[in-house]
C-alpha cells in the first residue's frame, strides 16, 4: 500500500490508541517487516512463511542498523519507542487496525527484552550478519 493511503489509516490507529508513537514509528515497522520478509525469502524455501515476533525484532534491529547506525536509539526515542515492547505495541495496534495480521502464537510477551537499544547499535559493522 502506498504511503498516501497508509497515512490516514495510521493516523486513525494513533487516534484510537492515544497517540503514544509518532507516525514514523508505524512506517518504520512496516518497512522493517518488508525488509525481514525479503531476508527470509532468500534464506528459506517457504516463501510465504509467517514472520514471528522474534523474526521481526531481529529484522527491526538489522534494518535500523542499516538505516540509522548508532543513531537508531535516538530515532526510536524521538518516535516514543524506548524498548522492544513498544514495537510489539505498534505491531498489535496495526493488527487491530487491519494493517497486519497476527497468528494465535504471536503475543505481546514475544517482544519483551528483544534487544537492548544501547548495545544493539553501539558498534555497527554492516559487513557482519550479527
Structure description:
It is globular and about 35 Å long. The protein contains six helices and no strands. It is mainly alpha-helical and 130 residues long. It has one domain. Helix content is 58%, strand content 0%. The longest helix has 21 residues.
Instruction: Give average pLDDT, whole number.
Output: 88
Report, as a whole number of angstroms, the end-to-end distance: 30 Å
Q: How many distinct helices? A: 6
**How would you describe the oligomerization state of the chains in this entry?**
single chain
Query: What percentage of amino acids are in beta strands?
Result: under 5%
Backbone CA Rg: 14 Å
Please report the total strand number as a whole number. Answer: 0
Global outline: globular
The helix content, as a percent range, equals 55-70%
Uncertain runs are none
Task: Write down the domain tally.
Answer: 1
Element pattern in H and E: HHHHHH
From the helix content, strand content and strand pairing, which structural class follows? mainly alpha
Describe how the helices and strands are arranged.
Layout lengths: L2 H14 L6 H21 L9 H16 L3 H7 L5 H13 L20 H4 L10
Helix pairs in contact: 2-3
Amino acid at each position: 500500500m502506498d504511503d498516501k493511503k497508509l497515512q490516514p489509516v495510521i493516523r486513525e490507529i494513533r487516534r484510537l490508541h492515544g497517540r503514544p508513537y509518532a507516525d514514523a514509528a508505524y512506517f518504520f515497522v512496516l518497512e522493517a517487516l518488508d525488509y525481514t520478509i525479503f531476508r527470509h525469502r532468500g534464506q528459506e524455501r517457504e516463501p510465504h512463511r509467517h514472520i514471528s515476533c522474534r523474526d521481526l525484532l531481529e529484522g527491526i534491529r538489522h534494518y535500523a542498523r542499516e538505516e540509522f547506525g548508532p543513531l537508531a536509539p535516538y530515532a526510536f526515542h524521538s518516535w516514543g519507542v524506548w524498548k522492544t515492547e513498544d514495537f510489539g505495541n505498534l505491531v498489535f495496534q496495526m493488527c487491530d487496525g487491519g494493517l497486519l495480521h497476527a497468528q494465535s502464537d504471536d503475543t505481546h510477551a514475544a517482544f519483551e527484552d528483544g534487544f537492548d537499544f544501547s548495545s544493539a547499535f553501539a558498534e555497527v559493522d554492516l559487513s557482519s550478519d550479527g
